[in-house]
Amino acid sequence: MTARPHWLFGDQLGPHFLDPRHGGPDPQAPVVMIEARSVLRRRRFHRAKAHLVLSAMRHRAAELGDRVRYVRAETYTEGLERARGRRRDALTVCHPTSRAALEFVRTLDGVEVLAAKGFLVPHEEFARWAGRHGGRGLRQEGFYRWVRELRGLLMDDGEPAGGRWNLDRDNREPPPRGATTLDIEDPWRPSEDAIDDEVRHDLDRWERAGEVSFVGRDGPRLFPATRREALAALRRFIAHRLADFGRYEDAMLAADPVLSHSLLSAPLNLGLLDPAECVRRAERAWREGAAPLNSVEGFVRQIAGWREYVWQLYWHFGEDYRSRNALEHHAPLPDWFLDLDAEAVTARCLSTVLAQVRDTGWTHHIPRLMVLGSRALQDGWDPAAVTDWFHRCFVDGYDWVMLPNVVGMSQYADGGLMTSKPYTSGGAYINKMSDLCGPCAYRPAERTGERACPYTTGYWAFLHRNRARLGGNPRTAQAVRGLDRLTDLPDLLAHADRRKDAAP
Fold it and tell me: Where is the stretch described as Disordered (predicted)?
């Protein structure tokens, strides 16, 4: 019997997606890959992201050699017709990572959707766990502990290694006083090759012809595009950077945007790495004495806790989650934000982070949440537009990643389904956790006047605007009561209104 061809999407590039075990494709199945130009036409993606995805796809096709039929087409439909031929050969495909892609493949005759790969927990197991909670109260901490037990991660005789499930309180140190960078080895970086040159040439040509439009800067490529590169990046992180990861996990430095972060989200989300191998290697480093438990637990929590949790909630909450807007935020994203125009921004924290996104398509989770997301939340930007921006502008951004992260975590647009409070702060938090405020034109402690920090003003204006909702939330009630102690509240609100249409 002839093996059915297997269709690989552009985020299913690791060897585990062709593994015939555990519900995988037929052994030695021919492979189909489709590069659809329409994907780049639909959105104004970051140029570095478009480069990375196309480079990774073309590198994978080169590795597969004669086993793959790589089709460059205008749309997936056109590409499939060319790949399947007149006989419309039967195909298999691993469960796609977006609802739109899943709906599309399910409309096709002769295409069998196999189980999802690249995650630690099958959908059916999550459904059973969620069912035990009645589908409510599905908080990340409970999910994380369940995954640890289920997969035996950092467990000793049925108990969490070290006696605590969560070492987050050990992982909140500000950067070392006076330091501009962390004194650790640099992260692994790739060397570009002929495939990267071809991709850049194609993107230049399409852009000159007006076929596509990008935002941000491209080059040189900073993230893995092959399995070999991804494993090299993982090895470098585990051996030389993991030990310092935990304590400065939430810190920010203007001259060191990477700090000790792993930079593995992009290869993970391209499918070049499997999350199981990442967490197992980290655990082995701790058990061999090469990294402290707080760093290893923090890294494991990012992958087995947060990444896995976001993936499961994307499917669990359903398509209507996309339109959630509990705080009724409808303001459009300003042009300076859409264009990544860091020079138009005075606030040093926001300008610095926006420049990092412009130049690399990446910044770590605290700038995403407490600088970019917080600005959007305080100013009442439309959460659907914010979600789209994060999806387009980050090299690791995909629909399943950004929808829960932005709608639920960052913008609190689901009204608390995912998190128990909005995540935003005044300038004091940014000042504590970074070196960004010192040279800034604004002062984190000032709420009104020319030197008022837009985050401090915005924080109190946000609390005032949502006083009724947040005053009854145990996690925000004390902050809301603080409004009554502000003698300058009228001036603060007037100041906040005046600066709404201007770059901070």
Answer: 162-181
